[in-house]
Write a structure and sequence with these properties.
about 200 residues; alpha+beta; Glutaredoxin; Glutathione S-transferase Yfyf (Class Pi), Chain A, domain 2; 2 domains; 9 helices; 4 strands; globular; binds glutathione
Length: about 200
């Protein structure tokens, strides 16, 4: 299997972290691509041209990151990460929320690097990120004890926010997530997939 990805993308990192947690990282060949540059090898597997995209050994493609994670779990360790999920729909909604949180963060960054920076629109996107983290901080009862796609998703998103928005004191604003992340980031899966330069 080959994973087309950008090493800094939080969506791609969640797949790489999961592969480590499942113990299948050796089976995942990493191919770094720049999705915004011409990339025929990516487009033939994923016509939309986004990363992460997984190319299976038979040449077919699987995307987006949540579907890739579902595929890896279904193939290598059915029911992994579901032990603590008493409400499957809340769990799936949390996964989607985390995906959309990094999308909003990404949008904010793109707006901020425009000439002139689109401050109002960027603030609007960042307000989504803040509301999402505040929601997770107060409603995620099993955060500290859970190892799941959702906790991997939060760790990858939070680390990306720390890296990309260093001027915001994320851990002070969301102290429970900050404390949890300090512990979670020491996992081998997180260490081996570091995004910081
Ligand atoms: N929801 C998708 C998001 C994928 C995504 O937006 N990837 C970005 C990089 S982080 C990308 O490929 N952008 C290139 C483009 O939009 O053409 C997922 O979770 O995989």
């Amino acid at each position: 299997m080959e994973l087309f990805c950008s090493l800094t993308s939080p969506n791609a990192r969640r797949v790489r972290v999961l592969a480590h947690e499942l113990g299948i990282e050796d089976q995942l060949k990493i191919k770094v691509v720049k999705p915004r540059e011409s990339s025929e090898c990516l487009w033939t597997v994923n016509p939309i041209g986004k990363v992460p995209t997984l190319r299976l050994n038979d040449g077919s493609g699987i995307f987006d990151s949540l579907i890739i994670c579902d595929y890896l779990i279904a193939t290598y360790s059915t029911d992994w990460g579901l032990e603590q999920q008493t409400d499957l729909w809340q769990h799936k909604t949390r996964l989607s929320l985390l995906n959309q949180t990094s999308d909003a963060g990404s949008q904010a960054r793109k707006l901020l690097v425009q000439e002139p920076p689109q401050m109002k629109a960027a603030d609007f996107q960042l307000s989504k990120v803040h509301r999402s983290l505040a929601h997770l901080e107060t409603t995620w009862g099993t955060l500290e004890t859970e190892l799941s796609l959702a906790s991997i998703g939060l760790a990858c998103t939070f680390d990306w926010l720390l890296d990309r928005f260093p001027g915001i004191s994320w851990a002070d604003l969301y102290p429970r997530i900050g404390r949890w992340f300090d512990e979670f980031k020491t996992r081998e899966s997180m260490q081996k997939t570091q995004i910081h330069s």
